[in-house]
Each structure stands twice: as C-alpha cells, then as structure tokens.
Amino acid sequence: MQMKRILLKIGSNTLTKETSQISRGKIEDIGRQIAVMKDEYEFIIVSSGAIAAAKQFVELEHHGAAIDVKQALAAIGQPHLMRIFQENFRELGLSTSQCLLSYSDFDNLDAKANIKNTINVLVANKFIPIINENDTVATDEIQFGDNDKLAALTAALLQVDLLMIATNTDGVYTRESIENNKPETITSVSGVQKLQKEISASKSTHGTGGMQSKIEAATIAQTAGIETWIVNGLKDNFIVDAITGKSNHTKIK
Question: Rounded CA gap, 119 and 117, in Å?
Fold first, then answer.
C-alpha cells in the first residue's frame, strides 16, 4: 500500500498554545497522533518556535537591530526546540531529524535535489524530518510569514499528498461571521480567490503570519496540485480529527 505523505506546518502560536512558553503537552499531542497514524501516513513537519523556545531561557542584552536579536534568539532556541521534540517523540517510539532550510535553497537546482533526496532517505528510514528556516543566515521567516511559505515550497518540492497548516482558528472564517462575533468556517473552496475577500490582515501574537500568509502558501501548493487544509492546532487530536472529518477546518482544493 502506498503511504500518503502529509506536510504538517506548526506555527509558534500552536506550539505555545498561545502562552509565552513552548508546550510539551502540545508536542506530545502531535507525536501521539503521528504514532497512531504511522502505518498509513508519512509525516514531514515544518515547525516554527525557535525564538519562543529561547525566550523561556534568556533575555538578550543588545544595542543592535531588533532583527539581529531575533536571529540570535533563534540560534539559542533551535536546539531547545529540537530537544523537546526529540524527547517527547522518542517516548512514543518516534525518531526525529532536523533540517534547516533557506528560501535561497529553492532557487538552486542542486540544493533542491539534495533536500528532496535527504528527506526521502530520512522518511524511508522512519525518521520524521523537522524543518525550520535557518534563521541565523536568513530573516525571511522572522519578518514575513512564520514558515507558511517555507512549508508550501517544501510541500511542492516533495510532492506531498496534503499540506496541513495548523493555526489558532477553525480554518478561514467568513468576514461577515467575524464581524457578527459568530465565527463560521468556510469548509471547502476551490482556489484561493474567494478566500481573499474573506480574510483580514491580522497577525498572530507569537507568529509573524496571519491568514494572508496561509492563503499565499495555499496558492503555492495549489499550483503544484496539492490540497491545503487550515486546521485548529490548539485543539487536542487536531490532525486525526481533521483526517476523519470530525473537526471544522478549511479545505482549499
């Protein structure tokens, strides 16, 4: 049986459960679901959260640009983030690996081939790749999109079956329902044009994304023939519930 491949993108807000600290409980929740589904699905994770992880341990003194401090925090936090993933996943019988990528890698044919080959070997040997942007040399994710675009480019490169973006809402809500304070999920849509009219440009508290960057990611995925689901990562069991149709989420076909 051909296993389906899911690229799961987890933002900082999901990993912290909208607090000031990385939630081990949330990472355990993600690992537990992957363990349950590992015979049917291969998972590749794109995870933010390095800066949030660092803020738990240090407060940097600086006189430079804010972006330099964020890059330094990312360098401090990335090993902590990977350790939390490794410890929690290992208890569930799952092995992890780290892949740090930059947007410039996707402009280089050799780099793209190397990324694809490496990740395929890792997945074939039951190691879950956990991808983040290499923040010490690149600032795109810090400034522009909380890894949504990186996730979409990686999904397209690997030709995954599904791009699942975890956020802090039950998918994309209609603009009217938000204005009426009764959020209503758009459950399925062909293409992203209709969604553009519905979304606001608000950003999340920890992340640099917001719904706009998720729609842009879905556009990249759609061009590659990949469906995108926007799901509520704050809820327990959110991956299984989305796949089994038990949750409200947005499918972009």
Answer: 6
Is residue 42 a contact partner of residue 67, using CB atoms and an 8 Å limit? no
DSSP 100: E
Low-confidence ranges of the chain (pLDDT < 50): 203, 205
Contact assessment for residue 131 and residue 150, using Cβ atoms and an 8 Å cutoff? yes
What tokens appear for 211 in the block? 């719904």
- The b/e string for 212-245 (b: 16+ C-beta within 10 A; e otherwise) is bbbbbbbbbbbeeebbbbbbbbbbeebbebbbee
Q: Is the dihedral of CA 220, 222, 226, 229 positive or negative?
A: positive
CB 22 within 8 A of CB 175: no
Q: What letter represents residue 94's amino acid? A: L
What is the dihedral sign for C-alpha 231, 228, 104, 111? positive
The conformation of residue 104, written as its DSSP 8-state character, comes to: G
Q: What is the pLDDT of residue 193?
A: 83
Instruction: Dihedral sign for Cα 167, 168, 170, 175, please.
Output: negative
Q: Could you report the per-residue pLDDT of 52-90, keeping only the tens digit for each?
A: 999 888 888 777 678 888 888 999 999 999 999 999 999
Candidates 249, 218, 224; CA nearest to 235 is 249
- Token match 């923040």: residue? 135
**Phi–psi pair at 109, nearest 5 degrees:** -60, -40
Can you give the pTM of this predicted structure? Answer: 0.93
